[in-house]
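hey
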C-alpha cells in the first residue's frame, strides 16, 4: 500500500514539474530569453488535450422550404398534378395492374417571364404523412417552351384518391441547390 502511494506521489510531482517547466519556458519567451534544452524537452512532454468535435447543425427540414423561388429575375413556383391510373388494363401476365400513383410536376414562372436557362431538376419527393416517394434517377424532364419545365413520375405508392400530398423539388441553378415545395396537392383518380 505504501509503495502505491509513493508512485502516485512521484507521478504527481513529475506532472507538477513538467507543468512548471512549461510555464517557465513561456515566461522566458515572453521576456525575450531563449529556453534551455531541458525546458524545451519538458514542454514537449505536456499532455495534449484533444479538441471536442463541433456539434453539427440539425438536419434541414425540406418542408420548411419556400413555395416560390427567385431565379435570376423570374419568380418560379410548382404546379403539380397527382393521380391514380385506374384504367381497366390487363397486364402481360393476365393480372390487372395496381392503382399506382402518377405525377406531373411543373416548374412555372410568374408574370410571363421565361424560365432562366440552366435550371435543372435534381430530385422530386412526394410525401403523405410519414410515407415518401422519392424520384432521383432517370427523371423524365421536358421543357414546355420558355416558361416551364415538367418532370413526370410513374409507379408510385397506392395512396387513396381524394387524399392530399406535399411535393418538394430540388433544383440546381448556377451551381446552387434550392428546394421548392407545394403543399396539399389533391390525388385524383383516372378511369
Amino acid at each position: 500500500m505504501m509503495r502505491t502511494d509513493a508512485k502516485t506521489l512521484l507521478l504527481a510531482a513529475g506532472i507538477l514539474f513538467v507543468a512548471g517547466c512549461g510555464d517557465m519556458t513561456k515566461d522566458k519567451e515572453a521576456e525575450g530569453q531563449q529556453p534551455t534544452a531541458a525546458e524545451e524537452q519538458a514542454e514537449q512532454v505536456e499532455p495534449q488535450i484533444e479538441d471536442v468535435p463541433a456539434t453539427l447543425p440539425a438536419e434541414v427540414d425540406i418542408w420548411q422550404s419556400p413555395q416560390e423561388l427567385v431565379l435570376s429575375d423570374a419568380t418560379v413556383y410548382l404546379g403539380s398534378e397527382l393521380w391514380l391510373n385506374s384504367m381497366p388494363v390487363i397486364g402481360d401476365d393476365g393480372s390487372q395492374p395496381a392503382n399506382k400513383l402518377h405525377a406531373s410536376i411543373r416548374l412555372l414562372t410568374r408574370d410571363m417571364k421565361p424560365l432562366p436557362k440552366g435550371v435543372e431538376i435534381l430530385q422530386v419527393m412526394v410525401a403523405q404523412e410519414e410515407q415518401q416517394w422519392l424520384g432521383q434517377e432517370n427523371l423524365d424532364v421536358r421543357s414546355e417552351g420558355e416558361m416551364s419545365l415538367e418532370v413526370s413520375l410513374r409507379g408510385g405508392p397506392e395512396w387513396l384518391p381524394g387524399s392530399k400530398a406535399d411535393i418538394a423539388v430540388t433544383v440546381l441553378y448556377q451551381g446552387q441547390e434550392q428546394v421548392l415545395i407545394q403543399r396539399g396537392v389533391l390525388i385524383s383518380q383516372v378511369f
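Residues 45-58 have pLDDT under 50 and may be disordered. The first helix runs from residue 2 to 30.
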